[in-house]
Amino acid sequence: MASERPKPVEERSSMPVPHWYTADEEVATLIDGNGVTVSDADGTDYLDFQSQLYCVNAGHSNQQIIDAIAEQLSRIPYVSSGKHNNTRSELAARLLEIAPDPMARTVFSVSGSEANETAVMIAREYTGSPTVLTRWRSYHGATYGVASLTGDTDTRTAIEAHAATTGNAKFLPPIPSAFGGATGEELAERAANHLEFVIRNEGPDSIAALLTEIVAGSSGGFTAPPGYYERVRELCDEYDIILIADEVITGFGRCGEWFGVDTEDINPDMMTFAKGVTSSYVPLAGVMVREEFATHLEDDGFDVGQTFAGHPVGCAAGLAAIDAYEDNLLENARAIEPRLKAGLETIDERFDVVSSVHGRGLLWGVEFADPGTGEPLVDPRVCGADNPVKQVLKHASNQGVLFGLGRPGIQLLVAPPLCVDETEIDKAIAALESSIKAVF
């Protein structure tokens, strides 16, 4: 309570305050990791089927990446983001080799939030227009700049409580529940028509960009119906809107290809990345842009920056991570996806309380609802009641498997590192099955 006196200093914990923290939850202390496994301070092992924050794509303790970090540290540990560095330049070139053809240059950043902010800043400056379109049930970061673009209500409410944010508009995601249960071609058409209505209602000349995850990340791993993104590209072209693909989670093999756009055959105008570029061993992020935006930046200059953008240690980690993905991890992700998908679909068939299983590659959402009404068992956005999805996560953790809580918390996320094997998948599926059975 606000009226209570603070605890004396000697009674307070010296532990740092975790992010996404609620006072009624225990916070694990993880101290070791190898491959798909992490271990806590008590020596208990867990299968990490959330890749911590959907980012340790190469698995824990990949020696190839560790050695590259050490080697860079031995040469020069830091170079100003206002200067060139050979490792930074090499990674920039390597990124363009694996990115879709329209990408021509890279602007480095530090985190996914800052990468999205940078992309939006470039788009607004280039077009002279203020508005950016994003969809409800999306996540693009939690800093002031991109929190208004995030469709997750928990994040937006927390940030906007004390900061006015402008220049954003929302459209509905292409999921059946947003369009009366429509699926397939009908869903694609209705969702695209809705997007065009939003564009026309906002006024096309006021819109700088449309920012979207190609496969939803922490908002549930849902995919779009066939034909939807082709129509999105057409609308952006028709109304002169810059299409920005948020690849912060979906990049670097998470969906079975280098980037999420590769699974939809769509060419964006900009792509943001972070997380998997270094397997999150070192913070690194950035924006890849088409030639016209690169030319604009070169002609007009780039008057802002971030101290740790394109950190050479991160760039060294990125080069090694790309090598690891090329060596076998991308291939393994593609090969192992059918087993994960089949296991999750079996759970969907077995439990009526599981309303939907959806995803691509090694990024999947498992959504829960009341079998009788189809409505969420509890809506964590408006109700403080115990959330059974959190109970499923806790039960699974007690069995040695970590899954993620989606946004909103009516779902959980399944996203193991790309080095996962069949035995680990089978164990995780078994733990999820028994956890759902125990809770429901």
Description:
The protein has twelve helices and 15 strands. The protein has helices at residues 51-54, 63-75, 86-98, 112-127, 144-147, 153-160, 184-202, 228-238, 291-300, 312-350, 388-398, 422-439, and strands spanning 30-34, 37-40, 45-48, 103-109, 131-135, 168-171, 207-212, 242-246, 270-273, 285-290, 354-360, 363-368, 401-402, 404-405, 411-414. It has a seven-stranded mixed sheet with strand order 4-10-9-8-7-5-6, sandwiched between helices. A four-stranded mixed sheet has the order 1-2-3-13. Helix 3 (86-98) runs parallel beside helix 10, helix 7 runs parallel beside helix 8 and helix 10 packs across helix 12. The protein starts with 29 loop residues before the first strand and ends with a helix. The model has no long low-confidence stretch (mean pLDDT 91).
CATH superfamily caption of the largest domain: Type I PLP-dependent aspartate aminotransferase-like (Major domain)
State the CATH topology of the largest domain.
Answer: Aspartate Aminotransferase, domain 2
Q: How many H/I helices?
A: 12
Kindly report the spatial arrangement of strands forming the biggest sheet.
4-10-9-8-7-5-6
Task: Supply the key terms.
alpha/beta, 4-stranded mixed sheet, 12 helices, 2 domains, 7-stranded mixed sheet, 440 residues, single chain, Aspartate Aminotransferase, domain 2, Aspartate Aminotransferase, domain 1
